Amino acid sequence: MKIGYVFEQGRRSRMEDALLFKATLLSNGVLAMAVLCDGMGGTQGGDEASHLFLKEAELWYERELLRSILGKERSPRELGTMIRAKVHRLFRDVNRMLFERMRLKRVTYGTTAVLCIFYRDRYYLFHLGDSRCYALADHVLFPGRKGRNVRIRRLTKDHGNGKGVSKCVGCNPEWKPDGKTGRIGTKSFLFCSDGFYKTQDEQTVSRSLHVMGAKKEAVLERRLRALSDRAMRQGETDNISALWVFPQASV
Question: Does 3.40.50.2300 match the CATH number of domain 2-246?
Answer without folding.
Answer: no
